[in-house]
């Protein structure tokens, strides 16, 4: 069984545009997914990237076009300039980490729900009530939003270090069996082909 380490940020619009396609591919190919939310802004500084606020206008113009095209291809509603972005990604990331450890519920649905809250529903994912609602809607105990914060914070930091060591530099980023890497929601078809042995 292939192991996919899924590095992402709960602030990333491109992770949002991936929808639940990773989960569909993993189910079809019999792959196991480990969710690794990370601090994308710190990752950028560690791996030669630039935070959106510091990017050249030419790059930001291209980003806007890519988001528009990605939205049209995915069919997902998207506000390119959401009300609560950027916000503190740590509380939502901690909740995902704690939910994964609990072994209950729909983890892919939780991740997508949190991203949808930012990029479609104009919600602040740093707020406890938003996180609790997403946990409950995806079959988790909403109290997980307030549990295991210290261990989740430690894992969140560890995810960043593991991302840097695995040559991850953006989100979403998929690492198969610690070796084969795929960057971006637009590389999910390639990930699928690789898992099927065709690439």
Question: Could you tell me the mean pLDDT?
Answer: 96
User: Ends: how far apart?
Assistant: 17 Å
CATH class: Alpha Beta
| Helix percentage | 40-55%
Topology-level CATH name: Glutaredoxin
Described by the principal axes of the CA atoms, the overall outline is globular
Which radius of gyration do the C-alpha atoms yield?
Answer: 16 Å
SSE pattern:
EHHEHHHHHHEEH
Question: Unreliable runs, pLDDT <50, ≥5 residues?
Answer: none
Number of domains: 1
What's the story with the biggest beta sheet? 4 strands, mixed
> Under the CATH scheme, which architecture would be assigned?
3-Layer(aba) Sandwich
Strand content: 5-15%
What keyword list fits this structure?
199 residues; alpha+beta; Glutaredoxin; four-stranded mixed beta sheet; 9 helices; 50% helix; 10% strand; globular
Architecture overview:
The chain has helices spanning 13-17, 21-29, 40-46, 57-74, 90-102, 107-119, 128-137, 149-165, 188-195; strands at 3-8, 32-37, 173-176, 180-183. The protein has 199 residues and is of the alpha+beta class. It has a single domain, classed as Glutaredoxin. Strands 2-1-3-4 form a 4-stranded mixed beta sheet. A hairpin with a 3-residue loop joins strand 3 and strand 4. Helix 2 runs parallel beside helix 9 (188-195) and helix 5 packs across helix 8 (149-165).
How are the secondary structure elements laid out?
Blueprint: E1 3-8, H1 13-17, H2 21-29, E2 32-37, H3 40-46, H4 57-74, H5 90-102, H6 107-119, H7 128-137, H8 149-165, E3 173-176, E4 180-183, H9 188-195
Parallel strand pairs: 1-2
Antiparallel strand pairs: 1-3, 3-4
Helix pairs in contact: 2-9, 5-6, 5-8, 6-7
């Amino acid at each position: 069984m292939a192991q996919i380490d899924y590095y992402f940020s709960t602030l990333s619009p491109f992770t949002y545009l991936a929808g639940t396609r990773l989960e569909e591919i993993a189910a079809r190919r019999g792959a196991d997914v480990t969710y690794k939310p990370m601090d994308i802004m710190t990752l950028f500084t560690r791996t030669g990237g630039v935070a959106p606020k510091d990017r050249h206008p030419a790059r930001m113009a291209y980003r806007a076009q890519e988001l528009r095209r990605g939205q049209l291809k995915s069919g997902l509603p998207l506000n390119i300039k959401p009300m609560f972005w950027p916000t503190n990604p740590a509380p939502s990331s901690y909740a995902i980490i704690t939910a994964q450890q609990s072994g209950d519920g729909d983890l892919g649905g939780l991740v997508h729900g949190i991203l949808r809250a930012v990029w479609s529903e104009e919600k602040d994912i740093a707020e406890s009530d938003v996180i609790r609602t997403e946990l409950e809607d995806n079959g988790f105990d909403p109290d997980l939003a307030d549990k295991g914060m210290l261990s989740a914070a430690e894992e969140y930091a560890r995810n960043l270090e593991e991302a840097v060591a695995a040559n991850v530099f953006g989100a979403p980023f998929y690492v198969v069996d610690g070796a084969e890497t795929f960057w971006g929601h637009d590389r999910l078809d390639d990930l699928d082909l690789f898992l099927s042995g065709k690439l």
